[in-house]
Amino acid sequence: MTAANHSRLFTDLSADLSALDSAGLRRRRRTLEAPCGPLAVVGGRQLVSFCSNDYLGLANDPALVEAACAGAKSWGVGSGASHLVSGHLAPHQALEQQLASFTGLPRALLFSTGYMANLGVVPALVGRGDAVFSDKLNHASLIDAIQLSRAESKRYPHADLAALERLLAVSKAKRKLILTDAVFSMDGDLAPLPELLALAERFDAWLMVDDAHGFGVLGPQGRGSLAHCQLPHSQRIIYMGTLGKAAGASGAFVAAQEAVVEWLLQRARTYIFTTGSSPLIACALLASLDLIENGDTRREHLWQLTAQLRDGLAGTRWQLLPSPTAIQPVIIGDNFEALRIANALYERGLWVPAIRPPTVPKGTARLRVSLTAAHSTAQVAMLVDALKALA
Fold it and tell me: Does residue 145 surpass a pLDDT of 80?
């Protein structure tokens, strides 16, 4: 490589970064100096954090910490290999069995992250000559998974069942897969799962549900969005739940029929070709499942906080999306205005992230308020009062 080429490459990168700055789109990372919780410490300063997806406040729960420590003493830290070689330890097996039982599906398979689960499942199920029907607001991992699969991509307007029906009706694809988030991560609304399942049945399609933000929070005993919507245990459903949000640890799982999970074990590249997760995490997650199942008090408090926030901002300039979940987006619109409001809150000791394109559509920059069961009513009142003052 010549010096001129080297210089041009880095000049282009610098120009691209400057363009992000000019558009108000550069992301900046902060380092926390305290464990995940409602109170964050950044640069020696304490802030009330409304950034975390730790919806039940389990990430630093003593029961999970104790289970992780006991797991490390019994099983060590690393698994040493991929699951299919020698990295599938007894805690992993126990967790998969518990997750299947908890979701009411025949079998579950662990993945290292939700992103890796989605990237593994979709290409294993569909390929050239097949078609994937995806909600336009689906998570980036689902979008990337479709590209990896080489199947035909058919995106339908958000929650537009009529548009999806038309796409399915004219499709000549050999295999069809409907993909949807259960709770949309930037809007907080719910997918019309019963209607999507009806379309899957009618048009002989799989229905894959990414329940990253519903597992542990929605449904009886936190069993997720399928239970929340009272969906039957259809053989067409492939259910993905993440374990780094409400479950308080890390990882993900896919639950489905026995044959589907066995096929994923044989063909999902992000499962086959990665080292198994730490066994101490599996031990912590087994404790987490008990807390989720018996966590009605936590969930009731979470819904009380959600109502407090929405009632407190009613009648102000702040437009809240109609979200029935712990994700409460405040639409601002302009990128720089969203940053200005987020910075003003930060100066008041309140950490609320400004979400901008490409994470959300252009012109819909927002504050994404994430509530958790670990927040207090006083902390939510502080946020309401600050937003009212800034209005």
Answer: yes
